[in-house]
Design goal:
CATH class: Mainly Alpha
Strand content: under 5%
Shape: elongated
Number of domains: 1
Oligomer: single chain
Structural class: mainly alpha
Length: 96
């Protein structure tokens, strides 16, 4: 295999991997938002009817809410970072 062909395959693999990572971040964000809304609704219901859930289940709901908030923050930061890098690289290629 010649070097240009190897570089072509490596660049295609890098492009595929970067596109896949974008989709993974967006999928994580799309999953975390409904989970946050569901746990919030369940915690409101548990506040109204204490007998429906045990203390352990309420604790699990609170932990799930915290984890989904953290995952939303992390995904948003990663997406913002990648957009900044994309803008900087594009400006570098265009000569600004």
């Amino acid at each position: 295999m010649k070097k240009p062909e190897l570089f072509l395959y490596l660049s295609m693999a890098a492009l595929a991997s970067s596109l896949l990572s974008w989709f993974v971040d967006i999928a994580g964000l799309v999953l975390a938002v409904p989970v946050l809304m569901l746990t919030r609704n369940e915690l409101k219901k548990s506040a109204l009817k204490v007998s429906d859930y045990s203390l352990q289940e309420i604790k699990h709901l609170k932990i799930a809410r915290i984890l989904s908030i953290v995952s939303i923050i992390i995904s948003a930061l990663i997406i913002a970072y990648r957009i900044c890098i994309l803008v900087l690289v594009t400006m570098g290629f265009l000569g600004y």
